[in-house]
């Protein structure tokens, strides 16, 4: 597992400080992040792959400073967004998965094999040549996951990957994330997703207010929002 | 190209996109130079044969070609009035044949293949243009068509659900805001997927 370290991380959008002095060392296999709307979870998650840079402090993955070595870090960190529509880049399903592998110096045959493999794994093989924008919401999120995992990242960060899905598709995505051998960080409001996780971090108004096993941390979170 | 690709394994599908693009260009130039009606008839027969080889479903082909025929239904009589029927029909035939060939290309070629073709064709100019980037811009432009269509549809639905009729502004504002948001998110997704320069 990678070591993700936040040290003294502060971030403001304009005048508004949304993260304050975050110190965290994440080394567990499955890590959940919860907190109220606007508490700063997405900002925190985006820092792991450099989409947002800290104003003060540093974020590092395996000792690599994300702000300085963004490209290198992003090669090992896959990111799944809430809205699968905004991550689809190419017109057809297979092409979109293949898009992740562009610029990786793989042969055409190699790319095709990896794409076929990923589509098979996520139950999308039958849709390979279909227009990606015609898939259902659940299938689109599966596609997003396939497109991220085809690059074989060592860490997957998912920001509310199931929020736009129905219960059945949400469970499917959650099971797929659970089964990954890779390290995962999941931001969510659906607390049942975090069952069996190794660690849960609770963010409140830009600060870590609870951190530990899911039972303890979620207990504190529940009493906080009650 | 906009989700128009019809999967297939025919010779036309499998031919490299660069070759197809080259042949398309050459064919369109040739068609423009045709002077005799019988030559055009031969060209039309050849194009029909290509469609047959590619096994493009007639419905998919019609959807590409019929709109142009409507246009020609107006343009050809107008042209005939000024230049006589032979010239007018030749003009109409040339346009229809070129459009049909272009349609055949889009129906049998995946966007990623077109991008790769762009990269290949632009390779001699790599000192001045980043072919990969040109390809990416092309792909994103194509991607934005259904994305924007979805946004417009959703905004229209939301308006109808609220019983609002409103002005064109009431439609334009949410569509523009949502489009900018999507563009923002798409930008983030591109960075996350390794296109960060
Ligand atoms: N790009 C931005 N520009 C300005 N303010 C922003 C931006 N992104 C987020 N914010 C603000 O920062 C705060 C934290 O946002 P963030 O998205 O990190 O919260 P969150 O915990 O993910 O919330 P949610 O549960 O609603 O997703 C919010 O008040 C939000 O309005
Ligand atoms: Mg969020």
What does this protein structure show overall?
The complex is a heterodimer of chains A (226) and B (197). Chain A is α/β, with parallel strands linked by helices. Chain A contains seven helices and ten strands. Chain A has a six-stranded mixed sheet, with helices on both faces. In chain A, strands 2-1-4-5 form a four-stranded antiparallel sheet, with helices on one face. The two termini of chain A are 34 Å apart. Chain B has 197 residues and is mainly alpha-helical. Chain B has one domain. Chain B has helices at residues 11-14, 17-33, 37-54, 58-83, 85-108, 111-122, 131-161, 168-192. In chain B, helix 3 (37-54) packs parallel to helix 5 (85-108). Chain B is globular and about 55 Å long. The model of chain B has no long low-confidence stretch (mean pLDDT 82). Chain A binds chain B through residues 46, 49-51, 70-71, 74-75, 78-79, 81, 83, 85-92, 95, 98-100, 102-103, 129, 131, 133-134, 147-148, 151, and chain B through 1-3, 5, 7, 110-112, 132, 139-140, 142-143, 146-147, 150, 182, 185-186, 188-196. The structure holds adenosine-5'-triphosphate (ATP) and magnesium ion. Residues 41-42, 159 of chain A line the site of magnesium ion. Magnesium ion binds at residues 41-42, 159 of chain A.
Number of strands of chain A: 10
User: Biggest β-sheet of chain A: count, sense, barrel?
Assistant: 6 strands, mixed
How would you sum up the major sheet of chain B? none
Order of helices and strands of chain B: HHHHHHHH
Classify the helix fraction of chain A into a percent range.
25-40%
Q: Low-confidence parts of chain A, pLDDT < 50 over ≥5 residues? A: none
Number of H- or I-type helical stretches of chain B: 8
Fold-level CATH name of chain A: Rossmann fold
Measure the end-to-end span of chain B: 26 Å
Oligomer: heterodimer
* Bound molecule types: adenosine-5'-triphosphate, magnesium ion
CA radius of gyration of chain A:
18 Å
